[in-house]
Amino acid sequence: SVAFAWPSHQNILAYLSGIDVRHAISSSDALQSLLELLAEYTDAEHINLLAYSAGGKVSTRALYELRQEYSELTAEQLKSKYRLGAVALAAIDVEVDSCLERLPSISDMAEQVVITVTDNDYALEAAKKYMGGRARAGSG
Question: Which segments within 53-139 are labelled E, that is strand?
């Protein structure tokens, strides 16, 4: 197992003010690099990815950008190259429109994509209220 942690203040105010959101977005490059390293230098049969809450911003962007970087490859070639098994997106704080835009690229890279939603998640409700008013993919 490998854990990827992006820099966060662990403070809802830093998140809602946008500081941690910018950290999350800029961390997608590092996650892309990690996935490339794992694919190239390990013999893992499957590389599974679990993203939760704001980690959804990091992971969906990283996978979307990797797909764009290798647009000449077919979905099967990408799956063979990266060996992504399951991509589980749990209660992610990603605007629905962005998630829907990125989902085909993520599906091209992974054998399985699972999105779970949650009801009455205070963090997702606060993000919706204070960060643009758009529905989050992880909200029920």
Answer: 84-90, 110-116
